[in-house]
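Good morning,

Attaching, inline, the backbone tokens for the sequence recovery test we're adding to the shared suite. The designed sequence is right after.
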């Protein structure tokens, strides 16, 4: 498969400009924390189904479902048959990762209510409509075992799951090493639900963390955390099977999520600042890579990286590997 890299648009905005591009309405946001059940940490990504949720994967391997302000988050799914709550709940030890699991990207197949999960240790798995134990679907492609499955989005019409393997070398606990090594062994993949086969779409990606399909699935956007940019991979049309760099950021982009309406995408970007401070930013781009909105979340996430910004209903849901709550902005 020919991969053509064409740099059409590289946007390098100075930080100050980024800070001043938000619309005034952002100033009136109110922020709410939905607490996770102790000791769960790290709601990395969100999914919703028929108005219910958010569902989110946490650091100790569970997927939780928000059941309202009184019940809070309840256990929904787990990814290995040998996961025990006694050993795994609250676990932060990476060597227990293969036993406990670690859901990162999640997404519902809306027709059936099945939840597809990119698990950092176990590969692509799926869980049925009542949650509980997931079943494995894929843990390698072209003979190469996944090392760090991460972002996920679903083509609902064609029943295809787009997901990333962020590195062929470094695992979840080794991300700082991957950044230091400038790793470029990540892949963009597509799992076909009908045929149970996985296809490699892009190779040599530098920390592919998030993936988002266009409204009509003409293209798919993939973030590169280490290369600090977003690539657009065309799925149809004359440029099908080729990719181009869409936009470059000053910080590391993690997940990218399309808004419910239109060709707009929220990207969670963490910018390294002087004195080892991290500046978490919510950035909204369009399908041409133009930055439309961008604002800092430092008041709520001081010096923390954020992993996701997802618009749902009247709110933006903020994900982070470093918090014990789900952040919710009303606007
Ligand atoms: C738990 O299961 C996973 C695969 O499902 C395996 O890799 C791991 O070694 C198992 N752990 C234990 C302690 O049996
Ligand atoms: C799907 O393919 C994987 C290998 O990639 C295999 O292990 C698994 O059994 C297959 N599942 C079904 C339902 O055919
Ligand atoms: C891209 O990755 C492949 C392995 O998947 C490797 O053989 C090749 O050398 C890489 N190409 C570049 C330009 O790094
Ligand atoms: C893209 O790749 C697919 C599968 O390999 C192929 O069927 C299709 O013709 C390709 N399209 C273009 C425009 O190259
Ligand atoms: C921000 O966090 C990093 C590590 O996460 C730490 O090294 C640094 O000292 C922190 N900076 C401040 C100002 O707290």
């Amino acid at each position: 498969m020919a991969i053509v890299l064409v740099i059409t648009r590289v946007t390098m905005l100075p930080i100050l400009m980024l800070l001043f591009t938000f619309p005034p309405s952002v100033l009136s946001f109110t922020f709410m924390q939905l607490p996770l059940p102790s000791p769960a940490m790290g709601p990395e990504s969100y999914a919703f189904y028929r108005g219910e949720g958010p569902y989110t994967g946490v650091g100790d391997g569970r997927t939780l479902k928000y059941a309202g302000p009184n019940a809070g988050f309840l256990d929904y799914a787990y990814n290995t048959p040998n996961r025990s709550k006694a050993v795994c709940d609250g676990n932060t030890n990476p060597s227990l990762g293969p036993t406990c699991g670690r859901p990162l990207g999640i997404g519902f197949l809306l027709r059936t209510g099945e939840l597809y999960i990119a698990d950092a240790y176990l590969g692509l798995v799926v869980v049925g409509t009542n949650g509980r134990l997931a079943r494995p679907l894929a843990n390698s492609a072209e003979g190469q075992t996944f090392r760090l499955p991460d972002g996920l989005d679903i083509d609902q019409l064609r029943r295809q799951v787009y997901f990333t393997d962020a590195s062929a070398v470094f695992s979840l606990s080794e991300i700082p090493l991957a950044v230091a090594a400038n790793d470029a062994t990540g892949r963009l993949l597509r799992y076909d639900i009908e045929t149970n086969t996985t296809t490699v779409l892009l190779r040599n990606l530098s920390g592919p963390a998030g993936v988002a399909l266009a409204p009509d699935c003409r293209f798919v956007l993939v973030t590169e955390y280490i290369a600090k940019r977003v690539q657009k991979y065309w799925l149809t049309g004359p440029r099908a099977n080729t990719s181009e760099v869409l936009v470059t950021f000053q910080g590391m982009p993690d997940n990218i999520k399309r808004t419910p309406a239109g060709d707009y995408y929220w990207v969670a970007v963490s910018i390294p600042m002087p004195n080892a401070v991290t500046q978490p930013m919510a950035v909204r781009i369009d399908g041409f890579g133009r930055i439309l909105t961008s604002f800092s979340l430092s008041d709520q996430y001081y010096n923390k990286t954020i992993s996701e910004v997802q618009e749902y209903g009247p709110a933006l849901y903020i994900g982070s590997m470093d918090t014990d709550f789900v952040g919710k902005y009303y606007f």
